[in-house]
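Input record (one chain):
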Amino acid sequence: MGSGSTFANRRDTDGGRAGGPCGGRGTTADATAAAPQSFTVGVAAVEGVDEPVTIEATGSFEADESSDVAPDASGRVIATPVDVGQFVKEGAPLVRIQGITANLRLDEARAASQRAEANVRLAESQDALAQTTAQRYAALLATGDVSKTVADQARTQAETSVQSVATARASLAEARAQLSQAEKAVADVVVLAPFSGYISARNVSLGEYVQPSTAVVRLLKIDPMRLQLTVPAVQAGQVTIGQRVIARVDAYPDRTFEGQITAINPAISPESRAFRVEARVPNREADLKPGMFAVATVDQGRTERAMIVPRRAVVEDVNTNSFRIFVIDDQDRARLRVVQLAARQQGDVVRIVTGITEGERVATSNLAELYDGAPVTIGDR
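The corresponding structure, as predicted from the sequence alone:
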């Protein structure tokens, strides 16, 4: 746009018609000298385009997930197979802790579990024999072939064997629980990635002693990214879940990143008179980084007619903080207009909301010499 200037109506310094010494008509040369100067200007036609209606907002990118990963066991670090910036998949080892004691306890638990399984098999075998014996003696008692005392002893033995089986099975369940705990203790010496992501910090080195309160690695999930936007409170009724968001960052000036609004904070800050909006933006190539500042537009899902003129046709008046343009009328005179620019501008053209209409001609050169009503001659565009 043109440089700042203060516009004032320019007047012809010759004073219009010049009278002769006796008040008669001036000469032809005097009339020619009194005619206002015509300025040669380039012109361009105002074009109308349908532009999407958007809301402008700013904000920052954040990781979709951020986790300070800590171990479930205590011990000395014996391996750190990852480093900062590395991508790891879910379940990948991040840190290994010394696990000699855990392995010994696992061996003990396995042996105890095997003994308990053998005891259950023995108890079940003895129970089967006792039940068969008790049934046979009961039949013999009915025929009088054995005494009641012998039959009662067999029945008691059968009842005792049932209890022995139950006790053996309970012992096996306890042994298996101890085995599961031992297996977990061995597994806990390897700290695994809870999700796929990038290592942003590794806080331990070989030989350090760690415990469950030690954050050994910070892991970030950055696909998708969360875009936290700040939107003025006056636009609260224009933002809804699912609206399209187009973001730009300084690191990639020629690219845009598209996402959708996924959350709207219902609280409005009393200090800033604004509220927070969250959008999810795909980041498959990991170009976006947490902390990046973004300028975004929220698509309202409708369009409006915008007037387009070359950027060189608009002059900024810094004294009045306004933008002005010269429209060339049918009599080839420049008419000064104050215009309102759209919020979003890009490239060599300017989008104007009010002040001009489609099809009008605007001056694109020699603007510093023009004034409201100045005659012009149309030159090269």
